[in-house]
Structure formats: C-alpha cells, structure tokens
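Tokens in:
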C-alpha cells in the first residue's frame, strides 16, 4: 500500500511547517500550498528549511481564491486528509486590509468546501479557527461561548467556522474546526508580540539604552506551545465524532507579566526598557482571551503540557542559539 497523503493549504507558516514535520515523521506524503510560493520562494521555504524538511514537502502553486485551481489540485493530489491553515493571519493587519483578510479566509474556506461537496470528497478536513471569534472572554470560552468578534480577522474566522458547521450538517462533509488560542514557537515572525519582545529584549542585553515600544500591556492571553497544538489538529481531524474543539491551555498571562519573565530571564529590568505606545494599540482590542480545555481533554485526551515559563525559556534559548 502507498503512503497516505496529507494536503496542507497554507503550508509555509509556523503551523504548516510544524504540521508538515509531524506528518512526515508518521510517514505521510505531504503536499503544501502557500501564498508565499508565487511571490518569494525563499520566504515560503524558510520555516521548512529551519526544520530541515524543505526537500521533503511537495510544494504546489495554487491560487486558493480560484475555484478551478483548488478543484484541480484536490483532484490531482487525491489526499487522504486536508488541513486548511491558509489565511492572512495577522489580526492587526486585518484592520488595515479587511478585504484581503476576508478573501484569504472566507473565499478559500468556501472553495475547499464546495470542491469537496461537488466531488463527494470522503476524506477528513480540518479548518484552523481562531479564538478571535469570541472577542473578550470574562470566563473561559467553551464551545458554546457567545461569539463577539472585534476585528475583520475575527469576523472572517467566524464566517469560516459557520461554513464548516453548515457543510458538515447539510452535506455530510467530514469537516471540523479547531478553535485555536494563541500558540507560539520560534517560527513565529516578528509581527507577533512574543517574537517581538524576545528579539527586542536580546537587543537590550547588548545596548543598555535600547528602548522597546509595545502596545497595551494589560491584555491577557492564553498562550500555548505550537508544537503541541499541531498534534491536536490531527486528533481533531481524524476523530470519527466530527466535533469542533477548543485548543487552549486554560491559563491566562498578562502581557506585562510575559515581558517581565523575558527580561528577568536575561537579568534585565523591563521597566528600564519597555514603554507602552499608542501606535501599537488596536482599534478593537480584546483585553482578555482564554479558553476551556476540558472538552478536548475528555473527548480526545489532548492537553497542553508546556507552561508559559517553559514557552518563554524555549523561545529565548532558540533565539540565542540562532544568533
Ligand atoms: O498579539 C498585544 C496585541 O499579534 C497578542 C494569531 O495567531 O492569535 C494571534 O493573534 C496581543 C494582542 O497575536 C503589541 O494587541 C501589545 O492583544 O501576538 P499578537 P494576536 O493578534 O492575538 C490569534 C488567536 C490568531 O488567531 C491569530 O492568527 O499582544 N500587543 N503590543 C502587541 N501585539 C503585537 N503584534 N505587537 C505589539 O507591539
């Protein structure tokens, strides 16, 4: 029997690269698409190169907003399972460019679902959802939590979540959403706050006068370790129950505390370096975002094991070693 094939839409980002590595280790053949391929192959392969798997994934050029191209790709690859991670994934960029965000998330989701409906595709399909659909969470968000998205990105993910549910219920497509809270790794780029803080803090170790401008330090997030989250993607996708799941740690950390831990690790006082600058405040900021991990633990026996201190230690260690 030949190898099983996984098709990853949106393969070049943090999650796509980590997922590729995990699938390759399980002897899957991995086919990946990326918006980056057509513009800059180097960017596309950066994360895969860092993981030493750039030669092992079959990269395909595909305009995911083009129905025919998506249909042709699925037909040619004939995957056993699909992961849709494709998105303009920056919340802050989504305020500046809502149209591109909607299209890259909603149109692409719809195209994949429609191709699968028209062709009676029988494999499993995982969609990467986002905790941004909940907006502020006063209590840990479970699957029934009210949706109050505050950004174009959140609205796009909300629509995509609804489409997945609709196609599952109406057309029996084997599709599910994993609603993902923030999850980090060294593969995140500097647009995200965790990498920004660590890179900037390291600059402070060399230059005592270095200043770091951040936005609202009072926000609280449920930060997890991406390498664990991509294992959850696969459990959710392959589960026969076809249930949407929340992927989170259930623990909140204030951004100011995150900053403090990073600077403490480097024997620096964060107050000497960090300022809160309105330039980085968001229009529709979510102040508190955390999830309830009990359902995924009960259903799939998955739980996040890496805590915030370990996440920070690992990120710093990687950055120092790569410099
Ligand atoms: O911001 C605040 C910022 O850009 C985290 C994506 O994976 O998770 C990620 O989106 C928090 C926000 O991630 C700066 O306002 C303060 O409250 O690292 P981030 P994100 O926007 O939460 C969700 C769940 C996704 O689905 C997304 O795809 O940190 N913050 N100062 C800052 N953020 C940034 N980027 N830069 C700052 O200077």
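Residues out:
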């Amino acid at each position: 029997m030949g190898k099983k094939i996984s098709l990853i839409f949106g393969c070049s980002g943090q999650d796509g690269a980590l997922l590729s590595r995990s699938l390759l280790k399980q002897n899957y053949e991995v086919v990946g698409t990326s918006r980056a391929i057509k513009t800059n192959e180097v960017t596309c392969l950066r994360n895969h190169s860092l993981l030493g798997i750039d030669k092992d994934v079959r990269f395909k050029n595909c305009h995911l907003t083009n129905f025919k191209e998506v249909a042709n790709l699925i037909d040619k690859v004939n995957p056993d399972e699909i992961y849709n991670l494709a998105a303009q994934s920056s919340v802050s960029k989504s305020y500046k460019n809502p149209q591109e965000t909607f299209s890259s998330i909603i149109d692409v989701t719809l195209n994949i679902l429609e191709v699968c409906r028209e062709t009676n595709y029988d494999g499993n399909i995982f969609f990467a959802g986002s905790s941004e659909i909940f907006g502020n969470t006063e209590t840990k968000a479970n699957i029934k939590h009210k949706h109050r998205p505050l950004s174009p990105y959140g609205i796009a993910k909300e629509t995509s979540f609804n489409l997945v549910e609709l196609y599952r219920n109406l057309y029996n497509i084997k599709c599910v959403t994993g609603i993902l809270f923030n999850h980090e790794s060294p593969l995140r780029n500097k647009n995200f706050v965790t990498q920004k803080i660590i890179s900037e803090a390291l600059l402070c170790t060399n230059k005592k006068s270095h200043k770091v401008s951040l936005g609202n330090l009072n926000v609280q997030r449920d930060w997890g370790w991406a390498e664990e989250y991509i294992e959850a993607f696969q459990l959710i996708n392959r589960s026969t129950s076809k249930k949407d799941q929340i992927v989170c740690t259930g623990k909140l950390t204030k951004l100011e505390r995150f900053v403090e831990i990073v600077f403490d690790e480097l024997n620096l006082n964060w107050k000497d370096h960090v300022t809160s600058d309105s330039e980085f405040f968001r229009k529709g900021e979510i102040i508190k975002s955390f999830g309830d991990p009990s359902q995924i633990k009960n259903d799939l026996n998955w739980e996040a094991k890496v805590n915030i201190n370990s996440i920070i230690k690992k990120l710093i260690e990687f950055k120092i070693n790569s410099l």
